[in-house]
């Protein structure tokens, strides 16, 4: 028969600071539980306010005649919209913006997919060149435009001797409307073709291997495999890059402004540049903001159409995969 001593009864094996088994953990107060969802929503609310407040303030300016020459602006309704949409500079900038956006997006998409295909099959050299793709993206667009402007100078630039060697003798830098537009597209493609290539390369590496193995067993050629397998399976990835590049090209300002300042004349004046000229150069603030609201509406509508097509494309691809 064992006898329990007082020292054994008083001994506590529970370490200091640790609760005994079976004890209830501390609970969060009911008020804190109720406030937690609202607390977590505060950053999102602040972000929305920071975005929407300036936007709606800017939209409100379009119905007044704010300008440096008019210290007491009056309500004018939709007169600013009527004036700019019936003016020749507006429609010229619409034409330039659309032409630049479509041309630059097509060029960058074709070159980007081509570069991605070369790097995908490039072995060790391809892996080395992948790292170089990001270099143009690290350069600020306005700095890239200034750098290219120096290269394109007819007197001291490097481009004129190269073109002369190819038989081009009528090169005048960016002094002609055609060359100004061409070089604006070239500079934009130099910066952003790697962006398309990176997305396309990631898409190539995610494609399943079994369809290509089956095509190789059947003796399919490279062009057939690319046209019937690679391109259809890769297109959803490439189309994401197309959406980003088209939306960004429609809002183009820094590259063209740094390279040509919208000239010669108004041959490369986009909607963004017109908005800058109206707001900063001419100090007609309401008209400048009206340009931006029109551009925003156009970009928003186009993006909704493209995103809807992308969603249908992804659903169709997922259905074919299953």
Automatic annotation (TrEMBL):
InterPro entries: MetI-like (IPR000515), MetI-like_sf (IPR035906), Sugar_ABC_transporter (IPR052730). GO terms for cellular component: plasma membrane. Signal peptide: none annotated. Keywords: Membrane, Sugar transport, Transmembrane, Transmembrane helix, Transport. GO terms for biological process: transmembrane transport. The chain crosses the membrane at residues 40-64, 100-120, 132-151, 178-204, 229-247, 289-310. It holds the Pfam family BPD_transp_1. Its main location: membrane. Residues 94-306 form the ABC transmembrane type-1 domain. It is a multi-pass membrane protein. Residues 1-31 are annotated as: Disordered. It is found in: Cell membrane; Membrane. CDD domains: TM_PBP2. PROSITE patterns: ABC_TM1. This is Multiple sugar transport system permease protein. It comes from Phytomonospora endophytica.
């Amino acid at each position: 028969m064992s006898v329990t001593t007082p020292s054994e009864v008083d001994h506590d094996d529970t370490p200091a600071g640790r609760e005994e088994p079976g004890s209830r953990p501390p609970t969060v107060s009911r008020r804190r539980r109720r406030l937690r969802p609202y607390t977590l929503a505060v950053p999102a609310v602040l972000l929305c306010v920071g975005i929407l407040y300036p936007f709606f303030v800017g939209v409100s300016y379009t119905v007044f005649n704010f300008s440096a020459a008019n210290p007491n602006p009056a309500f004018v309704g939709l007169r600013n919209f009527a004036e700019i949409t019936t003016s020749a500079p507006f429609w010229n900038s619409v034409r330039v913006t659309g032409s630049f956006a479509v041309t630059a997006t097509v060029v960058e998409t074709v070159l980007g997919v081509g570069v991605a295909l070369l790097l995908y099959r490039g072995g060790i050299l391809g892996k080395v060149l992948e790292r170089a793709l990001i270099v143009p993206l690290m350069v600020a667009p306005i700095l890239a435009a200034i750098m290219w402007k120096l290269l394109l100078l007819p007197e001291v630039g490097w481009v004129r001797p190269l073109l002369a060697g190819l038989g081009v003798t009528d090169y005048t830098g960016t002094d002609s409307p055609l060359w100004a537009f061409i070089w604006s597209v070239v500079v934009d493609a130099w910066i952003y073709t790697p962006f398309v290539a990176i997305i396309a390369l990631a898409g190539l590496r995610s494609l399943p291997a079994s369809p290509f193995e089956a095509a190789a067993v059947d003796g399919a050629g490279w062009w057939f495999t690319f046209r019937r397998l690679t391109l259809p399976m890769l297109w959803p990835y490439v189309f994401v890059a197309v959406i980003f590049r088209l939306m960004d090209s429609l809002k183009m300002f820094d590259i063209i402004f740094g390279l040509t300042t919208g000239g010669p004349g108004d041959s490369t004046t986009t909607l963004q540049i017109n908005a800058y000229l109206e707001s900063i150069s001419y100090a007609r603030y309401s008209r400048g903001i009206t340009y931006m609201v029109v551009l925003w509406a156009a970009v928003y509508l186009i993006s909704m159409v493209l995103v809807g097509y992308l969603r249908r494309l992804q659903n169709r691809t997922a259905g074919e995969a299953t």
